Amino acid sequence: MKSKKKAGRVALYVVLILYAFITLYPFLWMVAASFKPLREIVGGNMSLISENMTLDNYTTIFGHSSLFPRWFLNSLFVATVGTVINVFINSMAGYSLSCLNYPGRNKIHHALLLLMMIPGQVLLIPNYLLLKEFGMLDSYMALILPAAANIGNIFLMRQFFMNFPHDVAEAAEIDGLNRYGVFFRIAMPLARPTIATTAIFGFMGFWNAFTAPMLYIKTDTKYTLTLGLQSFQSQNAGTMWNQVMAAACISVVPIIIIYLIFNKFFLVGLRMDGEK
Amino acid sequence: MPSGSPQPTAVPAVSKRPRHTKRQLQEWRQGYVFLLPAVIILGIFIGISAIFVIYLSFCKVNLFTNSYSFVRLDNYLRLFQDEYARTALLNSLKFSVVVVPCQTIIALVIASVLNSKIRGKTFFRAVYFLPTLTSSSALTIIFMFMFSVTGPINTILINMGVLPEGGGINFLNNPAVALQVIMVMNIWSTVPQYTTMYLASLQDLPASLYEAADIDGAGTFEKFKSITIPYLKPITTYVLLTGIIGTLQMFDQAYIFSNGSGGPANSTLTVSLMVYRYAFGTTNAMGYASTIAIVLALVIMAVSLIAEKLNAAEKWY
Hints:
The complex is a heterodimer.
Chain A: H1 2-34, H2 38-41, H3 56-61, H4 68-99, H5 105-116, H6 124-133, H7 140-144, H8 151-161, H9 166-174, H10 179-190, H11 192-208, H12 211-216, H13 225-234, H14 241-261, H15 263-274
Helix pairs in contact in A: 1-14, 4-8, 4-11, 11-15, 13-14
Chain B: H1 22-56, E1 59-62, E2 67-70, H2 74-79, H3 83-115, H4 121-133, H5 136-146, H6 152-159, H7 178-202, H8 207-215, H9 220-231, H10 233-249, H11 252-258, H12 271-280, H13 286-316
Helix pairs in contact in B: 3-7, 3-10, 3-12, 4-7, 5-11, 10-13, 12-13
């Protein structure tokens, strides 16, 4: 019995380590290739470490003639502004749907549930035409505005505020805060953990978005990182894998840093996701 | 969600007079003001857009002259004789048939292993999660590099003697294997998301079941077979349906891989990519593209309705 059990445990670790390797392998290659000269990468050298390790790829993509730094800042700008706007719009709507009473509230709630059913894909064409009509194509507005509110996150905030104690609000009002103050000074700070979760996933969504920038942005100085990466790759005459890999590395780093810092919020968010 | 739960307001629920207090009116106003931005955004970019796309699906759109002419059911009828659409549908089906079972099985195995008593759980979980953090464009580019003619995969195959020296396969330009590469990439990048779904469900599995099996002397594999898998049956159905929806909507990876062309030789043309090509390609067929998008959306909504139903049933169980 004992040896059978032991074999089982060994098998568990074999599976774990094997899959960890499968997951990490492409990333290891990305990092390794980003420090290698191109000629070595395409030469079929299998070792991840090389004697000719160089920072040249990074200095090139951050160099004067490169648009890469610009793309990085564009992504940072769109993701930050988009996330901040989302946090306010979603938590205000969530608060409104849970803590305030007014006619038509349930109707709006049901309408939102209905809208949530519509797959995003079918909206791409009409959104494109609407943005064109508004004159917003090829601007950051096109990336931020259609994604400025998120129904899933509104319901998440609503869920949180359902438990917001009403007497706290009343006490605060007696202390001289008006009803808007109650929300911004008391309710929102209390909701920080939930807001953090939605903000992290929101930021990640903006940062990693590909379809929207690809459809709406035409000028290369306005590209986001994801779009820039793709254009880097598809440039004719032999891909500069070394530089592309360095660029890919830089694009992944911010999210990994956020992940390491806010790890616990990720787990919360995922549980919610899984239980949708 | 107790949406009908009593609201502890200071105002008495049954008021004799229909007049509203000043306080109440202020609350109404705040309610509308707070909801307004969300309603405007969602109303325009989801609500109006959805109605607009239905209208478009009955139209012939000319983007250059900005004119829409009503063509009744022409777009829907055209769908039935479209070779290109048939190719895309076939590719998407192939894709789903391979990817969905693979991602489900791998996620199930990984989740149950992670859920057992092992050391370094946090580390492994963090590693497995990495693909979820990475953008589809970075992922796709890494995989394109891995599978390029002189890339690591070909080198491994040559070193192992599977391929002759200098006989690397051009995975990216070979219609016979291009879609398979995207399948591998997609499985690799979606497993973490389903693993987390399974993990969430496994956390509720009563430990007493395993303890009882331990007393009976069951091995790891037997426990997996006769406790874990049956317990996870409902969530597995949900994972499968979510997987189907995900694969039907797969766009970014195919787009980047083929640089938007669906090539080589339409081998990576998925349904979503076809919609893109009809709408934004040179064909100028936005009306017809809307029609396809709607049909796809209806299929997706039907699948997710079933998923929701099953998921709800499981919760009440």
